[in-house]
Write a structure and sequence with these properties.
The chain is α+β, with helices and mostly antiparallel strands. It has two domains: about 1-160, no CATH class; about 170-190 and about 240-375, Nucleotidyltransferase, domain 5. The protein is built from ten helices and 17 strands. The strands form four sheets. Strands 2-6-7-1-5-4-3 form a seven-stranded antiparallel β-sheet, sandwiched between helices. A five-stranded mixed β-sheet has the order 10-9-8-11-12. Strands 13-14-15 form a three-stranded antiparallel β-sheet. α1 packs across α2, α2 packs across α3 and α5 runs antiparallel to α6.
């Protein structure tokens, strides 16, 4: 089993070669836009059909190499099948395969096929990147031009993964907006800074959008990129800490299965601000980061039904007898049955850990559930 990761490496590009890269990026973007227009007009999302329909025209119009055109078709098809579609491609990157890219580990050089032919570039990387690339023969990469004018190549590397260790220990992780993550080992990552940053960007965007100028549109793209990078950086750090703790304690990680949570929350009466915060909640990105890091580390990740995890007392499993109400008040949870009081998010992580114990410790009975007001639970809850 392997896990694909991306190693970002800076290229040392001579000034006389930079225009050739820029021209290749521009032609690749033109090809993608032409393919996208044709695909939408003909209503085609199949790679093979689109290839037969557009390949010769794009090759003749752009002068790109054959494999560049094939990669452009694949990129457009992937975009058409994505949740959020790109309406227009910009000359910022180009996809490369084994025929248009080669990595030479001994000399730390990469060969890249441009529109003018094959060029070689030295890599400006440190020991971390060298360690990830050592012993690998990568067959795909993406050449990127950043906004500051630097060129990077993002090399895809298949890292061997360790088989997940089956362990009776589990760390429950509750995801939320107030606390980005809270664990059953009582660690929490406060979301105040993230929420303040998002609110600040939202205010700036609203002010810029009212101007409706070309410069305002460029600024909006920059703001979006900064906010996205900050969120990604934060989620990477949280995921790394979660996986490291699980690895060091020989534990599995347990999460709620939050699929469809945005749609269900947005069906309820909510203010515009609350709807924006819900839509910006990047729990899925954090989950994906945890999954791939856990696969490399050999840490098992399990998911449990989310019903009542935030409303259940972790000590006596008591739930508020009135539907729609809970014993949570702000950041505190105080059970009305046994008087147990604790941080509400940590209490939920305890419940998630207990639920996951059924999957991890008793896989033979993991399918046995009890029906509770249309919801599924892995252990009986007390309403008395």
């Amino acid at each position: 089993m392997t896990q694909t990761i991306t190693v970002s490496c800076k290229l040392e590009v001579p000034p006389n070669i930079a225009p050739e890269i820029d021209k290749t990026l521009e032609k690749f973007a033109d090809a993608c836009n032409h393919i996208l227009d044709t695909a939408l007009m003909e209503n085609v999302t199949n790679t093979t059909k689109l290839h037969h329909l557009i390949y010769k025209d794009v090759r003749g119009a752009t002068g790109l190499k054959a494999n560049h055109v094939c990669q452009a078709i694949r990129r457009v098809v992937g975009n058409l099948k994505a949740t959020y579609r790109i309406k227009q491609f910009r000359p910022t990157s180009i996809s490369l395969d084994a025929r248009t890219f080669k990595y030479e580990e001994e000399n730390q050089i990469v060969g890249v096929t441009l529109i003018s032919g094959r060029k070689k570039f030295n890599l400006s990387i440190g020991n971390y990147q060298r360690g990830l690339l050592k012993g690998h023969i990568p067959t795909s990469a993406t050449l990127v031009k950043r906004k500051n004018g630097d060129y990077y190549i993002q090399i895809a590397v298949n890292i061997p993964t360790q088989p997940p260790s089956h362990t009776p220990r589990t760390i429950g992780v509750d995801l939320g907006r107030r606390s980005i993550a809270a664990t059953s080992t009582e660690k929490t990552w406060n979301g105040d800074k993230l929420n303040q940053t998002r609110d600040r960007y939202s205010r700036v965007r609203a002010n810029v959008q009212s101007k409706r100028t070309k410069s305002s549109k460029r600024l909006l793209r920059r703001l979006s990129g900064r906010e996205r990078r900050f969120q990604s950086w934060l989620n990477h750090n949280i995921a790394k800490e979660l996986v490291t703790e699980a690895k060091n304690t020989n534990s599995a990680l347990a999460f709620e299965d939050l699929k469809g949570i945005r749609q269900s929350l947005n069906k309820k009466p909510r203010s515009r601000k609350e709807r924006r915060k819900t839509n910006n909640w990047a729990f899925y990105q954090l989950r994906q980061y945890v999954i791939y890091k856990a696969a490399i580390a050999g840490v098992e990740v399990v998911f449990v039904p989310p019903a009542y995890t935030s409303q259940t007392c972790a000590v006596c499993h008591h739930v508020h007898p009135e539907k729609g109400k809970s014993y949570r008040s702000g950041e505190r949870f105080k059970c009305g049955n046994c008087s147990w009081s604790h941080n509400a998010d940590v209490n939920a992580s305890f419940v998630i850990s207990q639920l996951s114990g059924v999957y991890v410790n008793h896989p033979e009975i993991s399918g046995i559930v009890c029906q509770l007001e249309g919801q599924l639970s892995l252990f009986p809850m007390n309403y008395a």
